[in-house]
Amino acid sequence: MRTMMVGARWLAVALLLSASPALGQQADESTRTAARALGTAGVEAYQANDFATATDKLEKAYAILKVPTLGLWSGRALIQTGKWIEASERFLEVTSLQVPAGDVAVQKQAQADAAVELKTLTPRVPVVTVAVEGAELAECTVTIDGQPVANSLLTAGRLMNPGKHLIEGRHGSEQARTEVTVAEGERSKAVLKFTAPPPPPLVAVPPPAPPPPRETNAAPGSAQRTWGFVALGAGGVGLIVGGITGGMALGKKSDIDDNANCRDNRCAPSEADLVDSYNAMRTVSSVGFIAGGVLAATGVVLLVTAPSGGSTQAFVGPQSVGVRGRF
Fold first, then answer.
1. Which residue among 46, 189, 218, 239 is the one 20 to 30 A from 98 at the CA level?
2. Are 43 and 54 contacting, i.e. CB atoms less than 8 angstroms apart?
3. What is the mean pLDDT of each run of 10 residues along the chain (327 residues)?
């Protein structure tokens, strides 16, 4: 209480001294008198714990006479009414005011006190960060207690007075809102939830079109006739191989018959190589004739039964096999 009384006397002295030429240029005597009366009444209301009245009177007085002493007391009253952000701004403003002539020491002391109280108040101010779900923050407009706020300040943390606050956001035609209650020194986070847009519908990709049919000039049955010729040729080769090896086998048989070491289809062990050679050629000849005959017959069947673009006639002779006709 003693401190408050000293402060009140200090304010009164400062206001009495404010009738200096510097302030005389800003307000006439009657206006300054009214400001002094409002300031004194505001300090008295503050000392009586009537902070609402103190704030009202000190704000009016400071609006008329912007001197550090009035600014200091109005900032103190703002703190008591829960307006900590406004009080911080008032203290900061007071530290940069031009001190009027005539009461320099008093006003300088008021500025020093305002700087100390600003430093003390700053860590007590609650901070709220605002996040957005279901939308991009850059695409939203946000208000706090009805006042628009720059989006860049929301993610960095917004200083707020203690108490309850309404945070509203708009994204296109959709609106979201939330309430947050903060206390002294609290760090809080509020989230605006929008309905996320549905994902775009999946577009069915049609299957690729089948390739156009390849045009061909091949006559009906040409593939079958091709395989028929192949089988017929292979059969011919088999018959030729069988014939050649058969002839060679007959030669070996003649050598065996003329050999003195061979009698009655029996040969001495020394003639084993001759006998083995004869048997191998005879086997190859037999396989050649059999396989060649089967392949040749198959080729003839394929050629004869293929859809015809002309007329064909197969023939098999003692020493030849083939097809003649127009294809």
1. 46
2. yes
3. 49 46 55 89 95 95 92 96 95 91 86 96 93 90 92 85 94 92 92 81 74 60 72 75 77 72 70 73 78 75 65 53 55
